[in-house]
Write a structure and sequence with these properties.
- The protein is an alpha+beta fold.
- The chain has one domain.
- The longest helix is centred in the first third of the chain and has 13 residues.
- One of its GO terms (molecular function) is ferrous iron binding.
- Its cofactor is Fe(2+).
- One of its GO terms (biological process) is oxidative RNA demethylation.
């Protein structure tokens, strides 16, 4: 995924913080971007959209198409349908354990498979930072940011 010989930077007073410029290769970034748009925001993974019921003026859209596929299909014909699940509404998607923010706890019943690609990437990056026996067991969140939104990366 990355180059083991890359420099690693930290911050004084923030043990465990590692910054690895170029730690993920361009081809890996492209593959991850494709996966985020076509897999990680689709069932069985949970998204912010799943938290709300479909509105009367929304439709499910063509089956078998990811949100990205629906987006591309709508942009080709010039007419954009109002899909229940669409990229314009997507803010986040979780993989692995889903955190219940009301109860402040992980919900084992709402666990989705954790992508092996992300588990391998996190393991490789952790090893580069000196954590040889790191094993990801919790969860990951993919967050979609737009300039006009006020969410902070985390």
């Amino acid at each position: 995924m990355g180059d083991d010989r890359l420099p690693i930077f930290g911050l004084d007073g923030y043990d465990g913080f590692c910054y690895i410029p170029g730690g993920i290769s361009i081809s890996s970034r492209e593959r991850l971007a494709w996966s985020c748009l076509n897999e990680y925001c689709e069932p069985p993974h949970d998204t912010n959209i799943d938290q709300f019921p479909m509105k009367d003026d929304e439709i499910e859209g063509p089956s078998g198409l990811s949100m990205w596929g629906k987006h591309l299909e709508g942009s080709e014909g010039g007419k954009r349908e109002t899909y229940y699940k669409c990229l314009a509404k997507l803010s986040w998607s979780t993989m692995g354990y889903n955190y219940d923010w009301t109860l402040r706890a992980y919900d084992e019943a709402k666990r989705s498979p954790f992508p092996s690609e992300l588990a391998e990437l996190s393991s490789q990056l952790a090893k580069q930072c000196g954590h040889q026996r790191y094993r990801l067991v919790a969860w990951s969140v993919v967050i979609a940011f737009e300039r006009k939104k006020r969410e902070e990366p985390h």
